[in-house]
Amino acid sequence: MRTWTQLALLVLCFFCLSGAALAASAVTPDGYFNGIRLAGKVRVVDSFPDLRVQVVSAFPDLRVQTVDYFPDDIGQWQFVDYGEDFTVQFVDSFPDIRIQFINRFPGVP
């Protein structure tokens, strides 16, 4: 009897946790993360970033195109040394968002 109760509790916890993970999306469909519009001028920092970013080759939260001028669309980033819209730190684990660098069609997949 006790084993069935433990098994039922384990299955219930699994479904609750997996449902919460699927429901939580890092980037909104209109291209925002925690109120930050993911377009514009970006400065790379080593500490205290606005976003912790991991570069991936598949299943990104955002597709990023680097541009030299006019980073107006979601996913278009211009890397600058000053005058940034937000800051990022590139990490290998525990990112806020995952990005993939591309040549065209930036934005939320």
* Element order: H for helix, E for strand: HEEEEEEEE
Strand content: 25-35%
Indicate the radius of gyration in whole angstroms: 18 Å
Largest β-sheet summary: 6 strands, parallel, barrel
Task: Count every helix, treating DSSP H or I runs of 4 or more residues as helices.
Answer: 1
Principal-axes geometry comes out as elongated
Strand order of the largest sheet: 3-6-5-8-4-7
Could you give the distance between the termini? 47 Å
Mean pLDDT: 88
Percent helix range:
10-25%
Number of strands: 8
Description:
The protein is α/β, with parallel strands linked by helices. It has a domain at 26-101. Helix content is 20%, strand content 30%. The chain contains one helix and eight strands. It has one helix spanning 2-23; strands spanning 32-33, 36-37, 40-44, 51-55, 62-66, 76-79, 86-90, 97-101. The strands form two sheets. Strands 3-6-5-8-4-7 form a six-stranded parallel β-barrel. It has a two-stranded antiparallel ribbon with strand order 1-2. The radius of gyration is 18 Å and the shape is elongated. It starts with a helix and ends in an 8-residue tail after the last strand. Residues 17-23 have low confidence and may be disordered.
